[in-house]
Automatic annotation (TrEMBL):
It holds the Pfam family Amidoligase_2. InterPro entries: Amidoligase_2. PANTHER family: AMIDOLIGASE ENZYME. It comes from the Eukaryota. Residues 387-410 are annotated as: Disordered. This is Uncharacterized protein. It comes from Hymenoscyphus albidus. Residues 392-402 have a biased composition (Pro residues).
């Protein structure tokens, strides 16, 4: 047994010793973990020559903002968050959107966040890549659940996208900070139509996103193929199901749906693709026919003819009001890619073949997160699972809830760790 394997098993046992209220890992999970050492950083793989991580990420945050017209009365004046003054004139709907986005932009700028609105860009294309962008998204609808519906508020959908970040703790904190600033200043809602998408890439070369090689992509998709049902438990029920969401509904899954061993056969098909000359076959098998991209793990941007935005897009996470949830899910997404990049190939394949038929309770998502080197995120989700049944939809706050207790105060200046800066 290697030193890294022994340390990994010790980390697992120490983790559960520290939290006796959590269920212990199963015996099979501990045994499987011996075949699956924690990620080890290889020179010039997960970090570049300057010591910076090469894994990059970006986020798309979706929400609705409550506002009222200038002559209307604030329905909840005791709430310090602004609702009057966001829209300063009674104008048509398109100009209302401009006013709301400009107000958000100025709020973020006062907190030290570099941002622009897509209703009047102030920078050329090359400069916009280091800014947060406030954008329209036609898929965001006002709250529809009975307890969210309010006749005394107006709602407008907002999407805010980050610049590309290097994957590190400071960068993940910045993504969480933006959310916390918004929830501290505005009456924010995340209805069921909202989500939080994470894009993960392999860094830049000469200012352009690096192309993915087939080994890394096949490794990542093989892990997702085997453990998708575990990762699903992080998300509410409504984000786990749908005609075009899970990998088993992709081209590969559809071709195997009549086989009793479809999951194992699919794993072998994915692993065989690691030596292909390009990623086209992996994209074809693990995407959907007809150009549909509403999938949990969207890899359509990894075509060789795509020069910008060569990322995998994780689309499953629900819209959230909590910055810590943003940071945790980003770390999971980036950690899976880093693992696919650095893992020992033989050990990975042996491990996946051992686990492909396991039930979620035999090797839990907590076990998986610890195994890929994300013990802190495992702790975060373990506490959530303890407080909420992971098989049920967790309660979503009302749009007019008070901001999270850990929300960052407005007005602080934050520094960025952004590509190109």
């Amino acid at each position: 047994m290697t030193d890294s394997t022994s340390q990994n098993i010790k980390d697992l046992q120490d983790f559960f010793d520290d939290y006796p209220d959590l269920p212990p890992p199963t015996q099979s999970a501990s045994a499987n973990l011996q075949m699956f050492p924690k990620v080890t950083t290889r020179k010039n793989e997960s970090t570049g020559k300057n010591g910076r991580p090469i894994i990059t990420f970006g986020v798309e945050l979706e929400m609705t903002i409550a506002w009222i017209y200038p002559n209307d009365t604030d329905p909840e004046p005791e709430d310090p968050r602004i609702v009057k003054g966001i829209v300063v004139e009674n104008v048509d709907s398109s100009l209302i959107r401009v006013q709301v986005y400009k107000h958000i932009m100025n709020t973020l700028r006062k907190a030290g966040i570099r941002c622009l609105s897509d209703w009047g860009f102030e920078a050329v294309l090359g400069e916009k890549e280091t800014y947060w962008l406030i954008k329209d998204d036609g898929s965001i609808y006002p709250p529809t659940r009975p307890y969210d519906q309010r006749d005394d508020y107006q709602f407008i959908g907002v999407e805010i996208t980050s610049p590309p970040f290097y994957s590190c703790e400071d960068a993940r904190a910045q993504a969480a900070v933006v959310y916390d600033i918004l929830t501290s200043n505005y009456r924010v809602s995340c209805p069921e139509s909202t989500g939080m998408h994470v894009h993960v890439g392999l860094g830049l070369r000469n200012g352009v996103e690096k192309a993915w090689n087939t080994r890394v992509l096949a490794n990542l998709m093989a892990v997702l193929w085997v453990f998708e049902d575990r990762l699903d438990l992080i998300h509410p029920q409504r984000r786990r199901t749908g005609g075009y969401s899970n990998l088993e509904a992709a081209v590969l899954g559809e071709s195997l749906k009549e086989s009793p061993n479809w999951k194992r056969e699919g794993l072998e098909s994915i692993l065989e693709l690691k030596d292909e000359k390009d990623c086209m076959e992996i994209r074809k098998l693990l995407s959907f026919k007809g150009g549909i991209n509403r999938v949990n793990y969207n890899i359509r941007n990894l075509a060789d003819n795509v020069k910008r935005g060569r990322t995998i897009e994780y689309r499953q996470n629900e819209g959230t009001l909590h910055g810590k949830r943003v940071s945790a899910w980003v770390k999971v997404c980036a950690g899976l890619v880093e693992f696919a990049l650095t893992v020992d190939q033989d050990k990975l394949e042996d491990f996946l073949r051992r686990c492909v038929d396991d039930a979620p309770e035999d090797y839990t998502v907590i076990d998986l997160l610890i195994a890929i080197g994300s013990s802190d995120v495992a702790e975060f989700y373990a506490y959530r699972f303890r407080d909420n049944d992971p098989t049920q939809t967790p309660p979503t706050p009302s749009p007019l809830d008070t901001p999270p207790r850990d929300a960052s105060p407005p007005g602080e200046v934050y520094t960025f760790y952004i590509l190109g800066m």
